[in-house]
C-alpha cells in the first residue's frame, strides 16, 4: 500500500491497538489466476516464538481455504473511520480528498487443527460476548452441537511479516485549514465525520 510520509504511523503499539479495536478485516489471498477475499473477525496476539499473529476461521464451504498451504502469502485489510473532505473548506484552491485510517497486514497463512482452533474460538467468543447481559461461551455449548459446528469451519493462523499503517488525516495542512476541516466535519455530524475529526485532533502534527 502506498503511504505518503505524513500519513505514516510509526507507533506500532498504537497500530496494534487499532487492529484489535477494528478486528473485522478483509482476508485477501491468491487462488491461482484470481484473488479471493473474505470479511471475517481476526484476533491479534503473539505466539510462543514472540511473533505477531492473526487467528481466524472461515466456513469450510468457502473455497478460499483450499489455498492455505505451503505458507501462502496473504493480505489482511483493517479499516477505520473515513470521510470525504471538501476542498471548499480550504482558504485556497485545491481538490477534494478523503481522510481515513487503514492498516494492511502481510504474512503467511497455515491451517490450525482442533486444539488450537478451539482455543481461538473461545478467545473470540469471550471477547465479543464480554458486554452481553447473558453471555454465550464455548464452554456452555453442548458437546454434540459444538462438535457439529466445528466440522463446518477451517481455522487458520497468519504469521505477520509486515504492517503498513495509513493514517491520512490532513497532517499536511496548516493550522488554519486543519482547524477548519475539523470544524466542518463536526458540523456534518455523522459517525464517520465525527470519528475522523476526533482522530485528526489526536494525530495532528
What does this structure look like?
This protein is of the alpha+beta class and 205 residues long. The protein has one domain: Pnp Oxidase, Chain A (Roll), CATH 2.30.110.10. It has helices spanning 12-21, 114-129, 143-150, 175-188, 191-202; strands at 24-30, 35-41, 43-46, 52-59, 73-85, 97-112, 153-168. The protein has a seven-stranded antiparallel β-sheet with strand order 2-1-5-6-7-4-3. Helix 4 (175-188) packs antiparallel against helix 5 (191-202). It is elongated. The two termini are 22 Å apart.
Radius of gyration: 20 Å
Question: Remind me, CATH topology?
Answer: Pnp Oxidase, Chain A
CATH class: Mainly Beta
Principal-axis shape: elongated
Largest sheet, spatial ordering of strands:
2-1-5-6-7-4-3
Count of helical segments? Answer: 5
Q: Which blocks of ≥5 consecutive residues have pLDDT under 50?
A: none
The helical percent reads 25-40%
Largest sheet: 7 strands, antiparallel
Specify the CATH homologous superfamily: Electron Transport, Fmn-binding Protein, Chain A
Elements, N to C (H/E): HEEEEEEHHEHH
The domain tally reads 1
How large a portion of the residues is in β-strands, by DSSP E?
A: 25-35%
Structural class: alpha+beta
The total strand number stands at: 7
Mean pLDDT: 93
Q: Give the termini distance in whole angstroms.
A: 22 Å
CATH architecture label name: Roll
Amino acid at each position: 500500500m502506498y503511504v505518503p510520509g505524513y500519513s505514516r504511523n510509526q507507533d506500532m503499539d498504537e497500530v496494534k491497538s487499532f487492529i484489535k479495536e477494528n478486528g473485522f478485516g478483509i482476508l485477501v489471498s491468491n487462488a491461482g489466476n484470481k484473488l479471493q477475499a473474505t470479511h471475517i473477525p481476526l484476533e491479534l496476539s503473539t505466539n510462543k516464538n514472540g511473533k505477531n499473529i492473526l487467528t481466524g476461521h472461515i466456513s469450510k464451504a468457502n473455497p478460499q481455504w483450499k489455498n492455505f498451504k505451503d505458507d501462502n502469502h496473504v493480505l489482511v485489510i483493517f479499516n477505520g473511520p473515513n470521510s470525504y473532505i471538501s476542498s471548499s473548506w480550504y482558504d485556497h484552491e485545491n481538490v477534494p480528498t478523503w481522510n481515513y485510517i487503514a492498516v494492511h497486514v502481510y504474512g503467511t497463512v497455515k491451517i490450525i487443527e482442533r486444539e488450537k482452533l478451539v482455543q481461538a474460538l473461545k478467545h473470540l467468543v469471550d471477547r465479543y460476548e464480554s458486554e452481553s447481559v447473558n453471555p454465550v461461551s464455548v464452554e456452555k455449548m453442548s458437546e454434540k452441537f459444538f462438535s457439529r459446528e466445528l466440522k463446518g469451519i477451517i481455522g487458520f493462523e497468519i504469521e505477520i511479516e509486515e504492517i503498513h499503517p495509513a493514517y491520512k488525516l490532513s497532517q499536511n495542512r496548516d493550522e488554519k485549514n486543519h482547524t477548519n476541516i475539523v470544524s466542518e466535519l463536526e458540523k456534518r455530524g455523522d459517525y464517520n465525520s465525527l470519528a475522523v475529526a476526533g482522530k485528526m485532533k489526536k494525530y495532528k502534527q
